[in-house]
TrEMBL record:
Protein's organism: Musca domestica (House fly)
Cellular location(s): Cell membrane; Recycling endosome membrane
Record-stated family: Belongs to the monovalent cation:proton antiporter 1 (CPA1) transporter (TC 2.A.36) family.
Gene3D superfamilies named among the record's database cross-references: 6.10.140.1330
Secreted keyword on record: no
Main location, first listed in the record: membrane
Superkingdom of source: Eukaryota
Protein's name in the database: Sodium/hydrogen exchanger
Length: 678
């Protein structure tokens, strides 16, 4: 065969020699490049396949929890349809979670994880007392088919997740668990905000002294008592367990197991119209003790990490931790209140209410940013978002358009429902899939006993102290119900799962999870029985009807009802409200509500005359142009509720007629302002 570049006498043309060499070099280079490209492409294909598998497992994981929530919703409907009250939705979510977790655990998943052991060099420069944040792995890859060359080295970054306890792990087992920070940054904020946004303020403030006593003093006392008892019992346990626990560990356990989450009890209270004062005590304590528990647990951690050098009791470290507790709590409260007031000012002095969708978006974003600001400032977002919700309901809600009022109420009610049930479903699933559970029967039983003792010390001695100067007194059957309502829930679990590095923390997580499951399913399911056994009055229709009446009178009526200027003879309201609530009610009506909402009286009427220029700037046209009594659906209507008898008494006395001196005063102010502008 004769090639084109050869002559017929087989002599090679010198001109074609260079072309021959170039062609050979091109063919060799192309082959080598193609080989490398094929190897690189194979690596990329394998990585793409792994990413696709990870995506499928993530989707399956989310599908599992979506299925759990769907099943819970349908079962709740079935229970409500047949009037079944012995099992609450949270108990259902836990039970379904346990079933699905067991199925995941024992279904024999065939997707094992690939582990590669890596050891640091002896001359490494980083601090080897703690694991690195990221690990850069230089991976040589797969050798070429002929074994002569290796694929180009690549560096992969791996982030720190946790300590390894079980080498035999399946990917679906790990994907069925979540980063604990998801609970704190995404799931808890809407739950806590909804608690503040939907707070029944009239009866909350009426029982404010008792609620603060149970929530702050009682929770703190319970935490320290549980911690001390657990430490004493742990030292009597086998060495393998007692050696892993310090006093700070048991104290942290006391702080995380003290907050209550009586969702089941409150749902039954609402359905049966239980006495509203008992409802307020249970709900108010559960709202505030979550905030107290998270600040207290943070103070205990600060004591061990920053202040104490030995881990034992040190006076200086104790007072530093104590100052942290009060300082962080108050600063977080202040941030929440300021953000709520700032949102109220935005909605008052802008026309964003003309665009309800933007108004609702602003409301949600400002509320969530409160949590993030507090966390970024090394404070407690739970406390901040709780008091932001209270301020939003008290002030901002009055400035919102009707669409935004309905939308924000429904949005946070829905988010709260989904988040609560997701957490309880996850508690059930994680009992089988979370790799860091450490079961110790002695510790778990001791935890149950100490938690009950701590709850008893929270309720009975403090109730006795409160009854010395309280009217009406907290009766013995109410005290027993308060003790029984000490269910543990989302906050306890979130605090326990946040740090599971040590064996002590893993044991605490397991005990906490079982306590939550037992109290929600068993104790919550027995609520109806205890209501009947303790003879708690139910069907209190008169008070509940008042709670559901959202027609708010003008500020003058607010002063009479909430400031305890009693116009109804024989009424006992004057002594029912806490002194602090009465003082705040007067200040709030005269200055805060006129500043942050469109309510009357305006600042022109309540501030001194010398402040009129400033008061005019802070008073809107809507406030000045209101005719008579302004009636509006108010989230804060639980403080000031219409009473038909009082309304008739006032209407008979000409309170709303043309001769009302208050209206004449307002008209004079309006005339003055018109002349001022001219």
């Amino acid at each position: 065969m004769v090639f084109p570049w050869q002559s017929r006498n087989n002599a090679i043309n010198p001109g074609t020699t260079s072309r021959l060499l170039v062609a050979k070099a091109f063919l060799i280079g192309t082959f080598a490049f193609g080989t490398r490209c094929c190897d690189a492409t194979a690596t990329d294909i394998a990585l793409d396949a792994k990413a696709t598998l990870t995506h499928r497992i993530d989707s399956l994981n989310l599908l599992v929890y979506t299925f759990l929530l769907t099943l819970t919703v349908l079962t709740i409907w079935l229970f409500k349809h047949h009037r079944v009250s012995w099992l609450h939705e949270t108990g259902l979510a836990v039970i379904y979670g346990l079933i699905v977790g067991a199925a995941i655990r024992y279904s024999g998943s065939s997707t094992p994880l690939v582990h590669l052991e890596v050891e640091p060099e002896s001359n490494s420069t980083f601090n080897q007392t703690l694991p690195p944040d990221t690990l850069w792995l230089k991976f040589p890859g797969k050798l070429t088919p002929n074994g002569s060359d290796a694929v180009e080295d690549k560096t992969y970054a791996y982030t720190f997740r946790s300590q390894v306890y079980d080498v035999v792990e399946n990917e679906i087992d790990l994907k069925a668990t979540f980063d604990p920070e998801i609970f704190f940054n995404i799931i808890l904020p809407p739950i806590i905000f909804h608690a503040g946004y939907s707070l029944k303020k009239k009866y909350f403030f009426r029982n404010l002294g008792a609620i603060l006593t149970f929530a702050i003093l009682g929770t703190t006392l319970s935490a320290f008592l549980i911690g001390a008892l657990m430490y004493g019992f742990v030292k009597l346990m086998p060495t393998y367990l007692s050696s892993s626990f310090t006093f700070l560990d048991t104290l942290y356990f006391g702080a995380l197991i003290s907050p209550t989450d009586p969702l089941t009890i409150l749902a039954i209270f609402h359905d049966l119209n239980v006495d509203v004062n008992l409802y307020a005590l249970v709900f108010g304590e559960s709202v505030l003790n979550d905030a107290v528990a998270i600040v207290l647990s943070g103070a205990i951690q600060n004591y061990g990490e920053h202040y104490s050098s030995t881990g034992e009791f040190e006076t200086y470290a104790f007072f530093r931790a104590l100052s942290d507790f009060f300082g962080i709590f108050m600063l977080s409260l202040l941030i929440g209140a300021l953000m709520g007031c700032f949102t109220a000012l935005l909605t008052k002095f802008t026309r964003v209410r003309d665009f309800p969708l933007l108004e609702s978006a602003l409301f949600v974003l400002m509320s969530y940013s409160t949590f993030l600001i507090a966390e970024a400032s090394e404070l407690t977002g739970v406390v901040a978002v709780l008091f932001c919700g209270i301020c939003q309901a008290h002030y901002t809600f009055n400035n919102l358009s009707e669409n935004s009022r309905t939308r924000t109420k429904e949005i946070f009610e829905l988010l709260n429902f989904l988040a609560e049930n997701f957490i309880f479903s996850y508690i059930g699933v994680s009992m089988f899939t979370f790799p860091k559970h450490h079961f110790d029967a002695v510790f778990i039983i001791t935890g149950f006993i100490c938690a009950a003792i701590g709850r008893a010390v929270n309720i009975y001695p403090l109730s006795w102290l409160l009854n010395l100067n309280r009217k009406p007194k907290i009766s013995s059957n109410f005290q027993h119900m308060l003790f029984f309502a000490g269910l543990r829930g989302a906050m306890s679990f979130a605090l326990a799962i946040r740090n599971t590095l040590s064996e002590a923390r893993q044991t605490m997580l397991t005990a906490t999870s079982l306590i939550v499951i037992f109290t929600v399913v068993i104790q919550g399911g027995a609520a109806n029985f205890f209501l009947n056994w303790l003879q708690i009055p139910v069907g209190v229709d008169e008070e509940i009807e008042q709670l559901n009446n959202h027609q708010v009178r003008s500020s003058e009526t607010y002063l009479q009802d909430c400031g305890d200027i009693d116009t109804n003879p024989g009424s006992s309201r004057r002594n029912e409200k806490a002194v602090l609530a009465r003082l705040w009610g007067s200040f709030d009506t005269k200055y805060m509500k006129p500043l942050l909402t469109h309510s009357r009286p305006t600042l022109l009427e309540t501030l001194p005359v010398c402040c009129n220029p400033v008061a005019r700037l802070l008073t809107t046209t809507e406030q000045l142009t209101q005719d008579g009594d302004l009636r509006r659906t108010d989230s804060d209507s639980d403080i000031c509720i219409d009473d038909s008898d009082l309304s008739r008494n006032r209407s008979g006395s000409g309170g709303g007629g043309s001769g009302d001196p208050r209206r004449n005063s307002i008209n004079r102010i309006d005339n003055h302002l018109r002349s001022y502008h001219l």
